[in-house]
Amino acid sequence: MASGSTNGTRQPVTQLEWARQGVVTDAMRRVAEREALDPELIRAEVARGRLIIPANIHHLADSLDPMGVGLACSVKINANIGNSAVTSNIEEEVKKLHMAVHYGADTVMDLSTGGEIPEIRKAIIHASPVPLGTVPIYEAVTRVRRIEDLTPELLLQVITEQAEQGVDYMTIHAGILLEHLPLATNRITGIVSRGGSLLAQWMSVHRAQNPLYEHFDEISDILRQHDVSYSLGDSLRPGCLADASDAAQLAELKTLGELTQRSWDKGVQVMIEGPGHVPMDQLEANVKLQQRYCQEAPFYTLGPLVTDVAPGYDHITSAIGAAMVGWYGSSLLCYVTPKEHLGLPNEHDVRAGVIAYKIAAHAADVARGRKGSRERDDALSRARFSFDWEQQFALSLDPETAKSMHDETLPDGFFKEAKFCSMCGPKFCSMRISQTATKAMARPGDGEGRAGEAAAPEEAPVHGH
Fold first, then answer.
1. How many angstroms separate the first and last alpha carbons of the chain?
2. Could you tell me if 84 and 113 are in contact, meaning their C-beta atoms sit under 8 angstroms apart?
3. How far is 135 from 25, CA to CA, in rounded Å?
4. Per residue in 406-416, pLDDT tens?
5. pTM of the entire structure?
6. Strand pairing of 76-81 and 107-110?
7. Which class for 268: exposed (0-12), middle (13-18), buried (19 or more C-beta within 10 A)?
8. DSSP states of 385-405
9. Could you give the CA distance from residue 244 to residue 285 in angstroms, rounded to a whole number?
10. Are strands 332-334 and 76-81 parallel, antiparallel or unpaired?
């Protein structure tokens, strides 16, 4: 459990520090309102470290609508956006942001690695009502000629600049240590984390410990000043099924548990990033290990992808894993788009990834038995049985697609209220037949016709033979 200390008598800054003081902040009240929970429960969960509210004080004063990540809350999803060294366009990234938020992303990460990174980030922060995350080492690398030219001073400088700009949470790859590197040498895909691979090269060249680990307390002091949450990076996450749950991954996870406590001791909120490719039979064990080693700090998982054989469809392979780990206890699901492993996603890929993960998160909430989660499913089912098409569309996670698919095959206006769709047509619609049979059974004297003869549907004439 998080320490009760607030580092002496200094004035609280972070949501964690306020919660420990027994104060329910405006941000906590807003989270409670959004989650339909008691504000005191939100405060207690934040104080315990089991729930975070990623809310940089500068973003909170600008455009941020606070949200919570933790076991007490609904399962959340993150959408990654950002350019690459090959393509850079501020307008395109803002468009991706709007697309992600419109379709339901709860947080967004800017993973830009090229162009005017600070300008892109500034535009995104100002336009974003949801928390924004970054990976500071990406920008730091763009400022040096070679990876080995990185210095602790430069890393701290970039972290400071991003915190001052309003970034709400940062992926800090402080858990990968020099002694961990030999553990990854026999993997099929090696180190697939960008930040992890950059630090591995730096440590290998300098034969020195990870500077983010060595300077962790200094980083914590910077983050605390602006209430930036840690997203402790999983540098040694598996990049294929064969590498899942290996010694390298678990060694880093134990270090992340140590860093979790050090974050709490500094008054900094923290969540833990989790594995990328894991077979379904290992998912529950992975979540339980994280919860044990990291004392139930919120778990933020990429996927996981449960098979490696579907390039172009990894929003599906990963959504399967995401639904399962959400059920088992992950709090934030990082989406994967159809372009994963293949290219930089465009706005259409962002949409596909977000929708896949909204489905996964909702399925996880239903499986968890979260209060109110099933109500939407049941309401849609009732609308489906009564052929209330407009209500079905309104309750859908993607109403636009549901409506367009229905209208595509029944374009005439008459069919907008038809008691069937084009899959079965009027004669073979099981729900229409069921309704007719139920009505017949309810009428006295009915049901005495010839045995085995089903009642004909009452509406819409059937043309043809």
1. 72
2. yes
3. 28
4. 887 776 665 66
5. 0.89
6. parallel
7. buried
8. HTT-HHHHHHHSSSHHHHHHH
9. 11
10. parallel
